[in-house]
Design a protein that fits this description.
By secondary structure, the protein is mainly β. The chain has one domain: Carbohydrate-selective porin OprB (Porin). Helices cover 15% and strands 43% of the residues. Strands 1-2-3-4-5-6-7-8-9-10-11-12-13-14-15-16 form a 16-stranded antiparallel beta barrel. The chain is globular.
Length: 485
């Protein structure tokens, strides 16, 4: 408990310092969700431009502009209540130092779908239907890095085409209360912000510590879920949800397309997250602030990090992992714009911090902490570029560390694992066109966690990746309208 309250105090001080300039001055109710539907998820949400996107020409530092290409057809479809959405993200990166093996690999992730405005289609005010499919291809980087929790942005298990979402959403009370139900990805409304998807490793769509504790499936597929979001007065909000845990969706079968796993017979529990926070935007605050605190409880089954089914050390005696039941965590986030070189655009520096603390159960992660900054428009002539830096620290469960040390001891090694993993990412998002970003990046991992590595190595002390990614958000790039309030 002393560790818990010390951490809460530290993050609380950071959050208070970030919020001081705005909490006392902002009181008007503000609706923060400018987009609804599939585009509201950090998985598919494009970076907000520092200036309104140009409809034609270049300007704003862009090298080309394809927005006129889809504008006419997009408006025609919107007249019928149909909004096409999607994105593609592709990355090539190489392990140039450390890790389990050197080499280069490619991964790609593409989504395509639509949002339906049920008010225009059927006269249901505030109603909408969302469909999103994705395709993941390429190789996982765990065999190269030996790090499971410093996962890359498109982490989702085997390469496959998946149903990412099929849901119905209904807003009430002038969009102050929102309910979303159906096949939905787990947790993209919790412990995350649009800043996290500026990074390739560890954070998007939510921090690794959130994904390591919540139940299956992966956030790039979906299971049955119910999500409610409430906008409260004076910029406060409250979200709560329930997601079915269905591990088989992450690894086998038809990857969430309609079939036998749409029943509840394969469910292994429920993940229930809740989050309360305060959030301002450039519409009502010159230096926007977000602060929130949340918690989740997962009722599902999971493998014990140390003991086998006979309650013995699995690292020494082998055997099948003991099955544990139930786990929970809490998190605290804060972010604030702290610097703006001019007040006519959204150029500036935003700081962020995040802490995840395990409260019950015995998952592999114990606690985790993240922080960094996003510098939008570092150069006046390039207002939509972004320079991004993040640092993460993941403390592993001592039982898991004991398991790895036992496995090393059994193989005759005297070395022991470190028990904590540190990650650093530096990247630069070069805005090529509206919705199109080229992003060279560098990721450095200290003491890779080696979770799910069949034969842990005592010599795997670091790994350095260099690479580049390119992303295209179809609505912004092609001038397609998005479903919004």
């Amino acid at each position: 408990m002393q560790k818990l309250w010390t951490t809460i105090g530290g993050v609380g001080v950071a959050a208070a310092l970030m919020a001081t300039a705005t909490l006392t001055n902002t009181s008007a109710f503000a609706q923060q969700r400018t987009d609804v539907g599939t585009t509201a998820s950090p998985l598919t949400q494009s970076p907000t431009p520092a200036l309104p996107l140009p409809n034609a020409g270049t300007g704003q530092g862009y090298f080309f502009n394809l927005r006129p290409v889809g504008e006419k057809i997009g408006k025609s479809l919107a007249d019928y209540g149909i909004y096409v959405t999607g994105r593609t993200f592709n990355e090539e990166f190489s392990n140039v130092s450390g890790g389990l093996k050197r080499g280069s690999l490619y991964e790609g992730f593409t989504t395509l779908g639509f949002d339906l405005d049920m008010n225009r289609i059927a006269g249901i005010q505030g109603g909408s239907v969302h469909f999103l499919a994705n395709d993941l291809n390429g190789l996982p980087f765990l065999p190269y890095s030996g790090s499971n929790y410093a996962n890359n942005k498109v982490f989702s298990g085997p390469a496959a085409s998946r149903l990412n979402e099929l849901s119905y959403e209904q807003s009430f009370f002038d969009h102050r209360f929102d309910v979303r139900v159906g096949r939905v990805p787990t947790g993209t409304e919790f412990d995350t912000t649009d800043l996290y998807c500026e990074f390739v490793f560890s954070l998007c769509a939510a921090p690794s510590a959130f994904n390591g504790v919540r139940g299956y499936p992966s956030y790039l597929t979906s299971s049955w879920g119910l999500v409610t979001q409430t906008q409260l007065p004076k910029n406060f909000f409250f979200n709560i949800a329930a997601y079915e845990d269905e591990p088989s969706l992450a690894t086998t079968g038809h990857y969430n397309w309609p079939g036998p796993d749409w029943g509840f017979d394969r469910a292994r529990g429920v993940t229930i997250p809740a989050q309360f926070g305060y959030r301002t935007s450039y519409k009502n605050d010159p230096y926007p602030t977000t602060i929130d605190i949340g918690a989740l409880y997962d009722t599902g089954d999971y493998s014990d990090p140390l003991q086998n089914s006979s309650n013995r050390n699995r690292g020494l005696f082998g055997g099948t992992a003991k099955v544990d039941h139930g786990k929970s965590e809490m998190w605290m986030q804060a972010q604030k714009v702290v610097y703006r070189p001019d007040m006519t655009s959204e150029r500036g520096i935003t700081l962020f911090v995040d802490a995840n603390l395990i409260t019950t159960g015995n998952p592999i992660i114990d606690d985790a902490f993240y922080g960094g900054f996003v510098w939008r428009g570092p150069f006046a002539e390039r207002p939509n570029d972004k320079f991004n830096v993040s640092v993460g620290y993941i403390l592993l469960n001592s039982d898991y560390t004991n398991f790895v040390n036992s496995a090393l001891q059994k193989r005759g090694f005297g070395a022991t694992s470190h028990g904590a993993e540190t990650t650093v990412e530096v990247n630069y998002g070069l805005a090529l066109a509206p919705g199109v970003t080229f992003k060279p990046f560098l990721d450095y991992i200290v003491n890779p966690d080696q979770v799910n590595v069949a034969v842990p190595s005592p010599n795997n002390t670091h790994v350095l990746f260099v690479g580049a990614a390119i992303s295209v958000f179809f609505p912004e790039t092609l001038g397609l309208p998005k479903l919004g309030f």
